[in-house]
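@channel anyone free to eyeball this complex?
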Amino acid sequence: MRTKLMIAMAGIAALLLARNLYVILLELPDEAAQGAIYRIIFFHVPAAWTAFLCFFAAMIASILYLVKKDLRHDAFAASATEVGLAFGAANLISGMIWARIIWGIWWTWDPRLTSMLVGWLIYAGYLMLRRAIEDPTERAKIAAVVSIFAFVDVPIIFFSIKWWRTQHPQPVVWAGGQMDPAMYNMLFMNWIPFLLLGAVLVMIRMNQERAQREIDAMRRYAHAM
Amino acid sequence: MAIPAVRGTAAGKRTQPPRLSFLRQSLTIASKDLRSELRTKEALNASFAFALVILLLFSFAFEPTAEQTRQIAGGLLWLVFAFAGALILNRSFARELPNDCLDALVAAPISGAALFAGKALANLALLAAVELVCLPVFGVFYNVPWTQQFWPLMLVLLLGTWGLTVIGTMFSALTVNLRLRELMLPMLVYPIMIPALLAAVQLTTPLIMGEPLTAELIPWLRLLAAFDIIFTALALALVETVLVR
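replying in thread with the prediction:
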């Protein structure tokens, strides 16, 4: 049942993505100021939204773990964080490609870029910390606390860097203008397959985590014999 | 962690155990930590020596007398504090591992929050001691008039150090049982400390050059205070779950 649901969701995501690609590449016109490269935004922005949603879900699951002590919540938090990191990486890399073409530089210390990078590093640290702890309940407890700290910290980082950098001229992204409704809607249209894909990946990772728990239990059982 | 109710029912009115207030409990832990640290001076000496070495290294990376170096003085100073502080923070809970002292502390009739607050206060005192020795050295090496705004600078130092300490002590408790403790702690705490470090750097750079706190610097002071309050509250709320195994 669960496998079928996953396949169905992945299929819908693939179909939607194919349809969106057709519209993005062939139907939407080039942007007036940026030309063809602006199309990267349809992947760049939904990736960021998906990543933040994953980190938010991971924090909720972490709080639930601390309240209920159910390892399934921990497995969800770990899976969501991993998937969030993948989407965060997609966001950072696509942004860098865009920046190279439009601004002529790979990187600028703008608040959004910097806080995404710092957040990414904190969550990468979260995964490394998980690796370093063997006992499952101990790992779940410590990881949950780190996840909560990380999610509280990211907005503070964003605003602190925003204050810091507003003293300096910032690169103008859309020249202060509004996006065309067709393009604006496309951002959300393309978010749907991203969300589906993210959900499928989280489900696959959770299956793996469950299998891992079962293997560990069997191994302990074998040792006890 | 509640006190078991069975404690000495036979002793009549004296049964009510001398329950120290939260502050007294924290101060007891803090004074214990400070006493044991001052007897060995392990972390303190290492941290101070490390701070001096970094100050020396910076003079090779940046021309010490150049005007540009004076403009990044706050940043240099706080990097030194953050690096040297990690040595003290690493030891904070790890010190309790031999002879199972940590288990005894957790089992003691005080809350995890009081234990945390005591350890954080001790770390604050140790880190502040290292900073107060570094400041004159920095002033001499890099020729900055750091005494002109002494009290505002002390306020920033206190708030910034508390920010580093509260995060560092919490993560010291989190990583105490890890094999890779010394590696994991800096990797986890530095990114999380960024807002506090950033605000402290912004405030310290003008103060250390003898310029007063202007109105445009006040938001940084607020950010620093807000960071301290938010993470102190979060740490006090969560530390109990971390310590009890």
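from a first look: Residues 20-243 of chain B form one domain.
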